[in-house]
From TrEMBL:
<dbReference type="InterPro" id="IPR036388">
    <property type="entry name" value="WH-like_DNA-bd_sf"/>
</dbReference>
<keyword id="KW-0238">DNA-binding</keyword>
<dbReference type="InterPro" id="IPR009057">
    <property type="entry name" value="Homeodomain-like_sf"/>
</dbReference>
<dbReference type="InterPro" id="IPR000281">
    <property type="entry name" value="HTH_RpiR"/>
</dbReference>
<feature type="domain" description="HTH rpiR-type">
    <location>
        <begin position="35"/>
        <end position="111"/>
    </location>
</feature>
<dbReference type="Pfam" id="PF01380">
    <property type="entry name" value="SIS"/>
</dbReference>
<feature type="compositionally biased region" description="Basic and acidic residues">
    <location>
        <begin position="1"/>
        <end position="14"/>
    </location>
</feature>
<dbReference type="Pfam" id="PF01418">
    <property type="entry name" value="HTH_6"/>
</dbReference>
<dbReference type="InterPro" id="IPR035472">
    <property type="entry name" value="RpiR-like_SIS"/>
</dbReference>
<protein>
    <submittedName>
        <fullName>MurR/RpiR family transcriptional regulator</fullName>
    </submittedName>
</protein>
<dbReference type="InterPro" id="IPR001347">
    <property type="entry name" value="SIS_dom"/>
</dbReference>
<keyword id="KW-0805">Transcription regulation</keyword>
<feature type="region of interest" description="Disordered">
    <location>
        <begin position="1"/>
        <end position="36"/>
    </location>
</feature>
<keyword id="KW-0804">Transcription</keyword>
<feature type="domain" description="SIS">
    <location>
        <begin position="158"/>
        <end position="296"/>
    </location>
</feature>
<dbReference type="InterPro" id="IPR047640">
    <property type="entry name" value="RpiR-like"/>
</dbReference>
<dbReference type="InterPro" id="IPR046348">
    <property type="entry name" value="SIS_dom_sf"/>
</dbReference>
Amino acid sequence: MAGRAAEHSEHTEGGTDPEPAERGAGPGTDAGPGVTVAERVRRVEGGLSPAERKIARALTANYPAAGLESASGLASQAGVSAPTVVRFVARLGFDGYRHFQQSLREEVQARHASPLTLAPVIGADSPTSELVEAAQQVSSATLSQTFTALPEQEFDQAVGLICDPAKRIACFGGRFSQLLAEYLDLHLRLLRPGTLLHTAAPGRDAGFRLDLSRRDVCVIFDFRRYQDDTVRLARHAHERGAKVVLFTDPWLSPVAEFADVVLPARVEAPSPFDSIVAPLALVDALVAAVHARLGAAADERMRAAEEEWSGEAGV
């Protein structure tokens, strides 16, 4: 779904530090804990009427700000009637427009949460057994929620873009998420040619920026609280005609506004720091799908790489 709105960002990277939001699904709904409005839209988009699809596009193109307008304001943006907006909100599972907006306000707080505002699930006097149990429960929940909410059509689109031999693949992220970009790149370069990891500091990547074109697919990692230089480079890639595949959290990086594919993952952790457990698992799933799609060509490249390594080891 291109045209969606939304590390100073990830973990300890910049931004403001409001009080943490309750990680719930919103009052009066049965969508389950931690389910965002954007995720609700993805769940029902296949059954929306043409008018409701206009609302979904208007909402996700300027997310979550568009939903914080009045019902008539959102209706005006979408070019539909206010009663249609009310019906759309009900379809998402909310009791009313007020509850819909309350959920979005909680998301705004969650987007800006930091280690200083997120409370750990264990205390200083907690025994190791409690830590282990908490870590297991939180990690299991984030993995389950991530893959349950995975937008399969967009995942398939990401696989198709990365497997396209006519495309060059560039991966990059922010202060913490660059680890995920490097992890993905290390695998992709074994599976296909024409991949790179972009690591240049802001202001020192003119060559990369100039060379971006419709031939490129940029796989971008950006998690709360969203890193400005990552967002700027992603926007530039989009403006140059490159395809943008975004890995982000459920609250959606601003990169989502111009991404061609958005793959959200849960980031809750037993500590006050966001976790990369679920995002990493999602990357692993992407690598597996790319390997399967490329088939014999990928295996032959991997075999050639093994021979190169063996030769170097014998030197």
